[in-house]
Amino acid sequence: MEPSIMSLTSSPSNECDEVSRLGESPLTPIKLLTSMHLRANKDYWIHPTSRIRVGDWDKIIRPSHFPYLVATDGRTLCNQLPGIILPSGAMQIRLVESCWLHAVGPMGAAFVDGWNKLAVELKVNILNIDLRKPYKIRYDDHPASLLRLLRLTPEMADLSKGFYYKTNTFELKPLQKLATTIRHDLQYKPTLRGPPPTVRNLICKVVFKCSVNIKDWELLRTFATGTTGYTGLCHVEIRVEWGSQARAQWAQPGSMENVKKALQGYVQFSCAGRIEIVCENAREPTVRVLEEILERKVLFEGSEPVPEG
Fold this sequence. Notes:
alpha/beta; five-stranded mixed β-sheet; 2 domains; four-stranded antiparallel β-sheet
């Protein structure tokens, strides 16, 4: 059974019956203040007090004539994921497929008052539902669910910020250059796309997406030293793009030796990690050669450099 905010409250048995009937009638609508997972093909009465986001950014689907969420009077409320429902009083809805509904507006004083009465364990459980994401947070994602909590109380802001950045996995990527002239190319200094510098020391898990080139390699080396602000890492996954463009670039005889020469020195992490090569065909000879090069040059916790032979 999927967790919901309702399952985290401790109530007498008579109140539990009332909680279990939430959403069954217009007299007991679900008032969404945080996030809640609703099942498919079941009618719910909800009362949005602010805008509601339907679905998560890990499942982005183009708008279509196929409705993902409908009102029981036949109106299509959402025909793409993620989508937005505007507040319009109590309404009865039906989800075509199960998904999360997230309130994205202000929570208000009533929520703050209730929050202050909760034990720390319950607060952590609530944040686990509202802030822990089942997908990697992209470098350009907007943390709307976190921002709502940061605006409430200093205690909630500190707890929420720590939980969000320490428990989720963040995807980082070198910023692509915009200029193509030789002069601009020489001036180009790669930077990472990701969370702001003020919170980077809180992040524990990262997926670093890069390509096989000198600039990305130098940025990866800098990232591993912690000088970009990521000083609290526990695990790093290096995802190396090896698509058709990269293969064509290194397709000439002896090119893999040039790869080894281009990737100078070692990248040394003080945490655990792994390397994954993103390719169309893992059986290609160049893939295995690239794996061997990277396994020698990218070192994680407990690894020692292997002499070139």
